[in-house]
Amino acid sequence: MKKAIHLIYLALYGFLLSSCAQSGSEQRFVNENVEFACRQTSCMLDLLGAPDGRYPRTVGDDGKLVTTDIYGWTSGFFPGSLWLLYELTGDEKWRREADAWTAPLEPNKLNVNDHDVGFMVYSSFGRGYKLTKNEHYKEVVVQTANSLMTRFSPVIGSLKSWQGGKAPHDSTVWQFPVIIDNMMNLELLMGAFSITGDSAYRKVAVAHAGTTIKNHVREDYSCYHVVDYDTVSGKVRDRATAQGYADNSAWARGQAWGVYGFTMMYRETGMRKFLDVAEGMAGFFLNNPSLPDDGIPLWDFNAGQTGYHKDWKFDETALGYIPRDASAAAILSSALFELYTFTHNEAYFDSARRMLYALASGSYRAEEGTNSGFLLKHSTGSLPHGKEIDVPLVYADYYFLEALCRYERLLDGISLQ
Ligand code: GLY
């Protein structure tokens, strides 16, 4: 019943949009961006050559393409973008490329050392499975979920994110660090639950998300980046940041991961508390006084503000400006389109669209034939480490394409699920 109402609503929305004079220009916006993405991605494919286990990540100081191996956390996004181009165009060329770039990631199905197998395998094999129903892809998804499940601690109620690490503020060596980003990897577990019907995957995902609400999300719906736990007592040992400005600040991409992750968990479970947190976190992002008018956030909402103490050495003042993070905007735009479908709150739709248009403008979208084939500029990977500041990032492109795909579906009155 709920689904039927939802579909009627979407159809109505699609009808309203298509009946207004604007709809032609909206579709032209999508088409122009998809055509650009196809040409630009073809340039990247020319640069890369045949798949050889190296995956695009960013552009280095020398202006050259930087790649990672299959175990880098970003490896699945390029195949994911190829799947999105297949979905957006229906052109078999993109399916062939997506298949070819997905296959080499298969060893990650046995990777028990990294929570990010969710990103690596669900963006590639998972997206491929949804589009093609390839049985082998399905097996890889389930096997990878089994590997991720080994990282769950029932005492803590969470999956372990990193193997270790150290707090930037003192000499604390982390035992069981969990980062807000880990919310994204739960989609792999929910995918395995939907494939197999085995509720163990769902239980772990629900437990992890619940523990994240309890210990990462603050009163004002901003969030900590890292929470470290005692492996014996299950108690919180430390709250910190690794990629944000300060332990108590709001790192923009972490906030976007939270909105996306909790919205996804509401989609997959129907549990109201996840929707409430997604809305709270979205509200923090959208109503933040430091959010620029175009909706593309500073890399951290509190960068340089008083009351936020940085514990890292990199001198960001030498940059002379506070970098933005286009990747956070792309993730959030995609998440907000989905959040809108569950809440029918037009503010989410309008903000998602505003961010999408900003990303597609000359301020953020690359000139064709430049940017080593990446679509977007001005993302920030890890400023405290002095790494990937104001650069293209492969995941910004992936979520930009996903946001475009979701926007087009909403324009056509098609469900996102
Ligand atoms: N998951 C790592 C990052 O967002 O940079």
Question: Could you explain the architecture of this structure?
Answer:
The protein has 417 residues and is mainly alpha-helical. It contains 13 helices and seven strands. The strands form three sheets. A three-stranded antiparallel sheet has the order 5-6-7, with no helix packed on it. The protein has a two-stranded antiparallel ribbon with strand order 1-2. The chain is globular and about 55 Å long. The mean pLDDT is 95. The chain binds glycine. Glycine is lined by residues 73, 181, 243, 253, 381.
Extended strand count: 7
Count of runs of 4 or more consecutive helical residues: 13
Form type: globular
Biggest beta-sheet profile: 3 strands, antiparallel
Q: What is the element string, with H for helices and E for strands?
A: HHEEHHHHEEEHHEEHHHHH
User: Would you tell me the overall average pLDDT?
Assistant: 95
Bound molecules: glycine
Classify the helix fraction into a percent range. 40-55%
SSE inventory with pairings:
Blueprint (H helix, E strand, L loop, with lengths): L1 H18 L3 H26 L6 E5 L5 E4 L8 H13 L2 H11 L14 H16 L2 H15 L2 E2 L4 E2 L17 E3 L6 H11 L2 H17 L10 E4 L6 E5 L11 H18 L2 H15 L39 H18 L2 H15 L33 H18 L6
Helix pairs in contact: 2-3, 2-13, 3-4, 3-5, 3-13, 4-5, 5-6, 5-7, 6-7, 7-8, 9-10, 9-11, 10-11, 11-12, 11-13, 12-13
The site of glycine (GLY) has 5 residues, from loops.
